[in-house]
Amino acid sequence: MAHVPIDDARNLFDWTTPKTWSEFLRVLQQQRGKANGISDALIDVTMPIAQRFERSGKPFPSTPEQLQELLNQKLKRTR
Fold this sequence. Notes:
By secondary structure, the protein is an all-alpha fold.
């Protein structure tokens, strides 16, 4: 099962400016294929979740911990 570690959540949160799901998706795409950082497997499972959040109008989390918790809750349900 995929899991977003707090370090990855913190980096993704920090790199997402402005704090929107569309910017978060751009950051995920930008990280794909990089040797260091977020794994491509984690990016692959996180992108559809972020796309659903964007379409639904869900507000972007206000802390890295909230981002981690939200993504991990969704990842747990998509097993």
